Structures are given as C-alpha cells and as structure tokens.
Amino acid sequence: MFKIFGRKSEDNEISLLELELQNPVDCLCDFTYNFHWQHKGEKLDPKWKIPGNDLTFGEIVDHLKKGGNLKIKGNVGHRLCSSMGTNLVYFGGNGEEISVGDVYVDGDVDTRMGISMTRGNIYVNGHVSEPIGNILEVKSDVKGYKKFRSITDIATHGLIDDIPVGFQTVANNIVINDRTVKDTVGARIDVDTEIIVNGNVDLSTGILMKRGMVRVNGNAGKNTGALLNGGLIIINGNTDDFTGIDMIKGEIIVNGDAGKFMAANKKGGFLLVNKGSPIPPTSMVQLETSDHHLLIEQGMDPGKFHKFK
C-alpha cells in the first residue's frame, strides 16, 4: 500500500514519507505553522526540523500538497493537520481548497486534530483526544485505523464511497450526533448546506464561512463566527466570549448568552442574541420585520431577542 520516501513505483502508487517520533510533537502537518502570521516564526517555522528527524515541518506540508501521503510512527501532539487542504493567502495562495495526500498515525493524537481542515483524510490507530477539529469519522477502508474527513469536504464534495459513523447526510446537509466536542465546525464552508450538531461544540464555530448554515443544538466556545464572511450560524444555547469577532458579513443567532466582547472588530453583518455585551461601535438596534421572520423560521420567539449591528 505504501511507498517509502517518495520513490516512484511502476504501478504509480502514491509516494509516502515516514516520520518516527520519540515524544509527541505539536503542529505536525499544520498548514498555518501555528498561525505563523501572528508570531512571525518565533513559535514555529517551516524551516525547523521535526525533533528527532531530518525532515522539516515545511517539507511534510509540501509533500502533502503534492499529493503524497505521510505515515507517523508514535504519539502525536496538538493541532495535527490544522487547516490541511487550504491554499493559505499568507503563504502566497488564493485561500481556496486544494487536494492533498493522507496522513496515517500509528499512535495516539492529542487535542484539536483537524481544526479548520478542508481536504484530505486522517487515519489513526490509537486514541484521539477531544476537542477534535472540523472532522467526522467515516468507516475506514484501512484495517486497524479509524478514518476522519473534514466536515467541509463532506459538505462540499459529498461522501463519495464513505459510510458515516455518528452522523447522517441528506443531499449535502449533515446531521451530527456523535457527541464528540469539536472546534471550527463548518470552517470555510462555501456551499449551500445545513450542518446541524446535536451537542456542545468548542472554539470558532463557522470560522471563515461564506455560505450555508451551521446550527448547534447546545453551547459553543469562544470566537463563534470569527471572521464570518457569509451564511448563518445558530447556537441554540450559550456562547463564550468574542462571539462574532472580526465578522465581515452574515448572521449569527445565539438563543442564550453570547458572552463578553461580542462583535469585537466587526466589519459587517449582524447578531441576534438573548443577551450579550458588545464592543463599540457595535450597538443595539431595532429588530426589523425580516429579523422576526428569520427567528420564527428557526422556531424562536423574536420577543426574547436583541439585535446588534
């Protein structure tokens, strides 16, 4: 099944890099390099070698971008495959999704695996700690491994031949009942889809969404709707602080307390919430007829909501 270290085979089998870890390493296959634009290489740089290996963090990402696969032997740290499958603008890309290879882990994986992930598959034969990222489990086609795909990928491209584990699909709509706590649900969605999560979620629900709807029948963590660029997010519960931070456009409904620092640095769009503390210049405005209709369509009582714009 695998070819080692990129050697080509006569049957055109996809090339494979192997990586062996003595101790867990964070941010492997992280297309953001731990948000390089924030720390400018002080925390992680693509040129850094992975501890105990000759390969750099950048080389394994480049390998995946070329369609190659990666096999990791040993336990893995936090944020494995962060934003995998996204051609990030910061690194000269266009911000769109790209096809990538797959990642195989012979060991356990720590929290936030697959945050903001858009393409590719992750196979794990050990334990995956919660919260996980923007991923769902599907029935594995490799014995001994669990297989995970991006929620965004499934909503955009369909299941193809995969069989859901803990969720259902109707057309390109997804209902998630697996009760695992997830970050970045619906990250970068740009299709007309409905994603319904029955249970609580954690950080950055709907980050960078452009179209579609994410509905959480439970509570959500910080940064709900961060950088929202279209679409609708509904939280049928409370959110933590910084709801709607850096929001560009779209709508957020919180059927509960939206927390402190709401709509910090918001540029457009609006929020309908039961309760929340906004950051100026965002302020409370009168509900319009269209807002009443939107809330009623979602089974909510407009009389309990305030609008912030």
Labels describing this entry:
24% strand, nine-stranded mixed β-sheet, 9% helix, 4 helices, 2 domains, 309 residues, single chain, mainly beta, globular, seven-stranded mixed β-sheet
Descriptive report:
With 309 residues, this protein is mainly β. It has helices at 36-39, 57-65, 151-157, 289-297; strands at residues 3-4, 15-20, 69-73, 103-106, 121-124, 135-138, 146-150, 167-170, 173-176, 194-197, 213-216, 229-235, 249-257, 270-275, 284-285, 306-308. The chain contains four helices and 16 strands. The strands form two sheets. The chain has a nine-stranded mixed sheet, covered by helices on one side. A seven-stranded mixed sheet has the order 1-2-3-4-5-7-6. Strand 6 (135-138) and strand 7 form a beta hairpin. The relative contact order is 0.08.
Average pLDDT for all residues: 94
Helix content, binned percent: under 10%
Q: What order do the helices and strands follow?
A: EEHHEEEEEHEEEEEEEEHE
Shape descriptor reads globular
Number of strand elements: 16
| Strand line-up across the major sheet | 8-9-10-11-12-13-14-16-15
Strand content: 15-25%
**Structural domain count:** 2
Summed up, the helix count is 4
Q: How many angstroms separate the termini? A: 54 Å
- Structural class based on helices, strands and sheet pairing: mainly beta
Q: From the alpha-carbon coordinates, what is the Rg to the nearest angstrom?
A: 20 Å
